[in-house]
Amino acid sequence: MKLKIAVIIILVLVVGFTGWRIWKATRNDSSNTTSQEEVKKLPSINGELVDEDKATRRPIAVVIENHSDSRPQSGLNEADIVYETLAEGGITRFLAIFQTKDPKEAGPVRSARPYFNFLSNMWGASYVHAGGSKQALSELASRVHKNLFDVNEFSYGDYFYRDTERYAPHNLYTDIKDDQRKLLQKKDENLWQSRIIFQTQTTAPEQIIPEITKVTLPFSTDSYEATYTYDQQSNSYKRFIKSIATIDKNGSVQVSPKNVLIMLTDISTNPNDDLGTQNIKLTGNGPCFLFNNGKFKRCNWEYLENRHVYTDAEGLPLVLEAGQTWIEVFPRNRQNDIKWQ
User: Fold this and answer.
1) What span, in angstroms and rounded, lies between the C-alpha atoms of 320 and 261?
2) Degrees (nearest 5) of the Cα angle 88, 218, 60?
């Protein structure tokens, strides 16, 4: 009888100890899993936390046109950063930078300009374009910009396609995922030195009290007058050209960035170029205006150590909302033409 009791006690102890080991191991595995999941989330170039493989991969910068015949464009709503500035004859053009999303269609793709070369190099991006101005192509050929990977459609035609429902030159597109990402992999050009330029935050909706709900940038004619209207529900700025919504052809959604940052700088027509290309100063420093969370803030920009640094009026780092930012590069001598209310 005593032997049976002893055996039972031993069995209980063994089972209990084994159960405790299993519980402890399970708990440790759970903690490790959570820890690993947390480590995998890193800030992207737009400040949002995304999977590590997306946050550390090379951005892809695509020159996208804004001629009236190119609208609606594809991919603008899926870009992390979009620059807009003047091209020739009062027409504006975009440089859309993709890191976190890979739209199946981006474009219409147009030609390079020196200032887009500069910005793409600043981000260390893969630079997607179709030809370019004489100066832009000369810079790219001479490898002045060492941080970018040049993807000219004239050299990599297989990674672009034409939309037969539109006419040239407003019908050239690329697939970011199946064309451009695969090209980077094939050419072993995936390596990228992280370049986080913006400090970001995410503001709770209950903390937002809108003060400025509309900003207008009259680049030239009505066809290129960009207007942003603040939407408190989404805490974003709905974009319009005059009164017509800027729609992304991918999904037919209105472009609505979290931040509108206006960089004021010297812009003039190049007297040595028959095309009437623009000289746009992106080095040095200058003032800027920030619109986010329904508010307006004066700020400053400066080019330091191969990147733009943005500070508020007190000289502290400028803080943007995590999410898409549109950077409007606007003539400094026309800053009084910008209206907000």
Assistant:
1) 9
2) 60
